[in-house]
Design brief:
Largest sheet: 10 strands, mixed
Distance between the termini: 55 Å
Radius of gyration: 24 Å
Structural class: alpha/beta
Number of strands: 17
Number of helices: 15
Helix content: 25-40%
Length: 510
C-alpha cells in the first residue's frame, strides 16, 4: 500500500514539472561536445574524488589568519558571478568557470540571523564572525543585552565583546583591516568598536533622519577607531570614509568636506598618537593609489582613507582608486614583517551595496574583484602556516531563475512567461528596480537594456533599497585547521575555530 502511494506521488510531481517547460529552446552550440559523452562526466567526478582523497589534513598552528568577507555574497551571487566571470572576463568558459576560492578544499554553510531578527544586517553578523557571539540588529561589538540605540547598556563592560583582532593583539601579533566600504561601516566596526547603533559612525549619524541621535555619553565609531585599545593598535587600516574623521569646517585632499561637528580632526590625532608612541617615522596617512604604491618598506602603521565615503565601484574607479587586490597586497606586506603572525580582515563590501540598488552587473563584478584579492593573498602566503577563510555575512533577495540555455547572456532574458512577455535571468524580490504595471500588465523586459553597468534589474516589490536575504551563506577555507569548516554551523562559530587554529583567545586551544 505504501509503495503504491509513493509511486503516485512521484507521478504527480512528474506531471507538475512537465507543465513548466521552457518556451524558448535555443541552440546548444555553446556546449562542449565532450559533455555529450558519459566519459567526460565520469572522468570529471573521478578527478575531483581523487583530489578530495589526497587532501591532507593540516594541523599546524596557524601563524597568520586572513579572513575574507564578501558582504552580501549569497550563493546565487556565486552562481551568477561564475557565469559572468566565464562570459565577460575569460571569454572562453561559462557555467564551468569556478571562482578561485571555490576550489579551496573545505567548505561549509553558515546560519545567519540576529538575536532579534530572522534576516540579519551586517553589524550583528560582523559581531558573530569577528567576536564569536550573536547580537541584535544594527548593533556591533556588544551582546544581545544591548538593544538598538541603548547607549547606556552599550557602556557596561559586561555587555562589550572583543574581536579576534584584539585576541591577536593581546598575543603580541599584528592586525589590520581592509575594506571597500567606509572603515567605520558595519563590518569593520565590529573589529574595534562597541556600539548600540551602526549608524553612529561619527558625531552626526549616517541616515540621521531615521536614526536616533547618539547620546553624549557614547563615543562614535570613528572616535573608537582612533582611541580604543583595539583600534589604535591596528597596524593597517584601509578603506573609505574620510569625511567621518575631520570637521565640517575643513576639506579633505580632494576638496571633500568633513562631516564632524565636534571640531575633532581624528586623522591628525592618529598621527600625533603614533609620534607619541615612537612610530613617527614608520607611520603614514595616505589617500590615493600612488601613495599606497610608494609606501616605504619600513612602514609599520598605515591609515589609508581613499574616498570621502565608500570606495568607488571597480567599474567606476579612476587611476588613483586602489583595487581591493592592491590594498590586500600592501596590507600583507606590512603585516608579514618581523614574522610575528597576524590577523587581517579583507572585506569586499560593495557587493552588498550594488545588490541594494539592484545593480546586478556591479555586484557580480565586485565579486570578481573580491576573488582576485583572495588569489593574491593565497599566492603571497604559505598554506602550511596561513589559514584563509572566505565567507559572507548574509544573503540578498537576488535570484538566478528560469531555464536559460547554456551560454545565454547572464544579463539577458531567461524566457517568455505565460503573459508572452520576457523575464530576466537575474532579478530581485524587492528594491528600486520595481516597475509599475500599466493597462497591459507587467513590463516586458525584452524592451529594456540590461547590459550596462548601471542597469537596474527587475524587482517584485518596490523599496528604495533592496533587503538582505535570510539564506545560509557559504564558507570556504584552506590552510591549518581548515577542516574545522565543514557542515552547517552557526555564524558565531567562525572566530572560535580560527582562534583555535592560531592558539589565541580564551577558548579551546591545541
Amino acid at each position: 500500500m505504501w509503495r503504491v502511494f509513493i509511486i503516485l506521488i512521484l507521478i504527480s510531481f512528474g506531471d507538475t514539472g512537465d507543465m513548466h517547460r521552457r518556451k524558448i529552446i535555443k541552440p546548444t552550440s555553446k556546449i562542449n561536445e565532450e559533455e555529450l559523452t558519459q566519459e567526460y562526466w565520469i572522468n570529471q567526478a573521478q578527478d575531483f574524488l581523487n583530489m578530495k582523497y589526497n587532501t591532507k589534513i593540516n594541523t599546524n598552528q596557524a601563524k597568520n589568519i586572513i579572513f575574507f568577507l564578501g558582504d552580501g555574497l549569497s550563493i546565487p551571487t556565486l552562481k551568477a558571478t561564475r557565469i559572468y566571470y566565464g562570459q565577460e572576463i575569460l571569454k572562453t568558459q561559462h557555467e564551468e568557470a569556478p571562482l578561485y576560492f571555490e576550489e579551496f578544499p573545505y567548505s561549509a554553510l553558515s546560519r545567519t540571523y540576529c538575536v532579534d531578527t530572522q534576516v540579519p544586517d551586517s553589524a550583528c553578523t560582523a559581531t558573530a564572525f569577528l567576536c564569536g557571539i550573536k547580537a541584535n540588529y544594527d548593533t556591533a561589538g556588544v551582546t544581545a543585552s544591548v538593544n538598538l540605540a541603548n547607549c547606556t547598556a552599550s557602556l557596561e563592560e559586561k555587555n562589550r565583546v572583543n574581536s579576534i583582532a584584539r585576541w591577536f593583539q593581546l598575543d603580541g601579533k599584528k592586525s589590520g583591516l581592509v575594506t571597500t566600504t567606509r572603515v567605520t561601516h558595519a563590518t569593520p566596526s565590529a573589529i574595534y568598536a562597541h556600539t548600540a547603533h551602526r549608524n553612529w559612525e561619527c558625531d552626526v549619524a549616517e541616515y540621521f533622519d531615521e536614526t536616533e541621535p547618539m547620546p553624549e555619553d557614547c563615543q562614535d565609531i570613528a572616535v573608537q577607531l582612533i582611541e580604543s585599545e583595539t583600534g589604535k593598535n591596528l597596524n593597517v587600516i584601509m578603506g573609505g570614509g574620510r569625511r567621518m574623521f575631520f570637521p565640517e569646517t575643513e576639506n579633505g585632499p580632494e576638496d571633500d568636506p568633513g562631516k564632524r561637528k565636534d571640531s575633532k580632526n581624528l586623522i591628525n590625532q592618529w598621527l600625533e598618537q603614533k609620534e607619541k608612541d615612537g612610530f613617527k617615522e614608520t607611520s603614514q596617512y595616505i589617500w590615493n593609489k600612488s601613495q599606497l604604491k610608494s609606501l616605504p618598506n619600513e612602514i609599520d602603521y598605515v591609515f589609508g582613507l581613499f574616498e570621502s565615503s565608500h570606495c568607488a565601484y571597480h567599474l567606476d574607479a579612476n587611476d588613483e582608486d586602489p583595487s581591493l587586490e592592491e590594498m590586500t597586497e600592501v596590507a600583507i606586506n606590512i603585516l608579514s614583517k618581523e614574522n610575528k603572525g597576524f590577523f587581517l580582515l579583507v572585506e569586499g563590501g560593495r557587493i552588498d551595496h550594488a545588490h541594494h540598488d539592484n545593480l546586478a552587473m556591479k555586484a557580480l563584478d565586485e565579486t570578481v574583484e573580491f576573488a582576485k584579492a583572495i588569489q593574491k593573498a593565497k599566492e603571497m602566503t604559505n598554506e602550511e602556516d596561513t589559514l584563509i577563510v572566505v565567507t559572507a555575512d548574509h544573503a540578498h533577495s537576488f535570484t538566478v531563475n528560469g531555464y536559460p540555455s547554456r551560454g545565454n547572456n547572464i544579463f539577458g532574458i531567461a524566457d517568455i512567461a505565460d503573459d508572452n512577455k520576457g523575464y530576466s535571468t537575474l532579478s530581485y524580490a524587492n528594491g528600486p528596480g520595481y516597475k509599475d504595471y500599466d493597462e497591459n500588465g507587467r513590463p516586458d523586459y525584452r524592451e529594456d537594456d540590461l547590459s550596462g553597468k548601471d542597469a537596474m534589474f527587475p524587482a517584485m516589490a518596490p523599496l528604495d533599497s533592496e533587503t538582505h536575504g535570510g539564506d545560509d551563506v557559504a564558507i570556504f577555507a584552506t590552510g591549518p585547521w581548515a577542516h574545522l569548516f565543514t557542515g552547517s554551523v552557526e555564524q558565531n562559530y567562525i572566530p572560535h575555530a580560527m582562534a583555535f587554529a592560531a592558539c589565541v583567545g580564551n577558548g579551546h586551544t591545541m
